[in-house]
Amino acid sequence: xxxxxxxxxxxxxxxxxxxxxxxxxxxxxxxxxxxxxxxxxxxxxxxxxxxxxxxxxxxxxxxxxxxxxxxxxxxxxxxxxxxxxxxxxxxxxxxxxxxxxxxxxxxxxxxxxxxxxxxxxxxxxxxxxxxxxxxxxxxxxxxxxxxxxxxxxxxxxxxxxxxxxxxxxxxxxxxxxxxxxxxxxxxxxxxxxxxxxxxxxxxxxxxxxxxxxxxxxxxxxxxxxxxxxxxxxxxxxxxxxxxxxxxxxxxxxxxxxxxxxxxxxxxxxxxxxxxxxxxxxxxxxxxxxxxxxxxxxxxxxxxxxxxxxxxxxxxxxxxxxxxxxxxxxxxxxxxxxxxxxxxxxxxxxxxxxxxxxxxxxx
Length: 362
What we know:
Layout: H1 16-28, H2 43-69, E1 73-77, E2 82-87, E3 93-96, H3 98-101, E4 106-111, E5 118-126, E6 131-136, E7 160-165, E8 173-188, E9 197-205, E10 217-219, E11 225-235, E12 241-251, H4 252-265, E13 274-275, E14 278-284, E15 290-298, H5 303-306, E16 314-318, E17 321-322, H6 326-334, E18 341-348, E19 351-358, E20 360-361
Antiparallel strand pairs: 1-2, 1-4, 2-3, 3-6, 4-5, 5-6, 7-8, 7-10, 8-9, 9-12, 10-11, 11-12, 13-20, 14-15, 15-16, 16-17, 16-18, 18-19
């Protein structure tokens, strides 16, 4: 589910103008309408008059948000990928996805509103959260300005959102939808293969997220960035084809936490993500179905080693959550914080055991 190479999404059509028109009918006829008043408007006439006004108000809101935010969105060209980014501050820092930058260090950056191509260089990437920061060779001028980031803890299901970026290289593109869910834990493959990444607390949206949208802006009608579009769902029943209207964004509060550390220290010093401090792999049972995570190695003095786990043990549960794959283990850990105590159930030889583990930090 790589956002820079995802399949297209079809945005869900909103019916707000119709809802507003219905309200206009109620206000016009609070006690029921009759045809006797010469100066009274019929329900149909009132609805027809209200609908264009409501529609125009919504269009004006959209256009204002686009005017406010688009100068904060850029297109990022790497040698093997194309993605989007958001201007983070007035020092030329741009936040994007780690899978957009890949292993590159130098980039060509173009403002969504046009203008000269700027050079950019990687400050640091944090693949565990699929975030990265690059810095422009020159401080943004009149064509670019820092975005405003919202407190994503206040994001609510049903809010109208716009996704801005460069899908398929079409810069300054905008799609619309709603917040479909919050607090999702999502796993997906990394660009170029390799181990997948699991991200907690993501914002789910119906706004279309297409190839090239990764790293762009998911914004509310207050012109605030509430998330960075990152992943789009695929449907395994359609051969891995697109699942329309299901995309995911890293919440803005997480983006700020990670970006601030990278800018200040050149790396992430406090991930806030729990870990068992092991290298593991999925194992299958006699029925050839995934049945647990084998400990390949446990870091000396790491969380698992301190609790007595060692190479060869097979983890089958974390508290009451069954563990069958390395992905399910990552998803179970995503809901915890470093320092939390959990009960790990594992198999050693033919014996099932359990240990209390104080979680470490990625």
